[in-house]
Amino acid sequence: MQFRFSLLAAFAAVAFCALPARALDRPEITFPVFQFPADRIPRVDGDGADWDIVPESYVVGSKELVDGSTKPRQHDPKNLDVRVRVGWVKGLNRLYFLYEAYDDYWDFSQPGLHNDTFELIVDGDASGGVLVDSSQKSVWRPEIVGERRMTPDGRISPAQEKWAIHGVHAQNYHIFTPAVDKDWALAWGSATWTKELPWANAATKFDFKPGEPGKLTLEFWITPFDYAGPEGPERAVESLLYENKIIGLGWIIIDYDNAESGGRNNGFWMLGRQRSMFGDASGLPAFRLMPQEPFLREKRIDAQWSFKLVDIDRRVVAFKDESVGEVTAWHWDFGDGQTSTEQHPLHAYEKPGNYVVILDIEGPAGKSRHSKVWDVQMR
């Protein structure tokens, strides 16, 4: 059994790492992700009012999409028109979405995959690479996966291959718009648990019936993962989100206009420019997790800081300034009688104890102070 899992691990490593990393798609543009203040996190209820603070510059509209169908169509807003906003909150590994769409024919009467769909693909560390198994022939081509990977390894079954690769290092969600009498989304891959609380949540508002026109509002959040395995969340690794981080993110609007059309759709509207983006994270556009907009800051200068214990035996602590605004001077009081004027000091405590640490800063906008009470503890 141990040999079997070692073989699978080696297979996954080759599949993900054998090829040199490729740049994300659409190098001419980096889309912004709006940072919500911690006290204005969107409530997922299908009401877009919480997103009124998001500037128009963050909206990704239909004009950014191209039709990846066999016979591409020109966009007609009278047929389908969408607006997407993406947000994040500093300190949470979540991506928030507001999807607003008008469609002249909403197709959602069937219980299966045939459903108007907002297909979302996320690569939380922008590492790129294939995220689907080799049954997806449009992705598994030599120019994408490499010549070596095109030859199957007879020791690994297709089912084992899918288990090891599909949706593990980047995730694909088929979000049904709307979902009626079914789950809100298909987490397409081996880790289907990622669409459930506490890793995701969604709410939709609409007032139309199948086949009718109308507007839909979908509000949801997901957790991106660097590793999301089929065994469950106990071994999962969330993608760390922080200011100015670049992530791979894209979507495809699959528009059906006939409940009896089978698998044929009326549009495959992609944010990326490669149809393979649904299964190749290297084909995703780039998004940047933006700092908080200045108009939302209550203070023009605000002292903030964090710390890490570098050496517990020598009681060495690394302090990091995370202040907001223009800062020209720093003064650290480590609580043991010692101080520093460095921005990011390294300090060694001589004795065990609990310490009150204070950071004072100055800048053109004035002064600010922030203390932490007994967070810094030495043994």
TrEMBL record:
InterPro entries per UniProt: Ig-like_fold, PKD/Chitinase_dom, PKD_dom, PKD_dom_sf
Range of residues in the leader sequence: 1-23
Keyword Signal in annotation: yes
UniProt KW keywords: Signal
PROSITE patterns cross-referenced by the UniProt entry: PKD
Cross-referenced CDD domains: PKD
Limits of the PKD domain: 317-366
Keyword RNA-binding appears in the UniProt entry: no
Identification of the protein by name: PKD domain containing protein
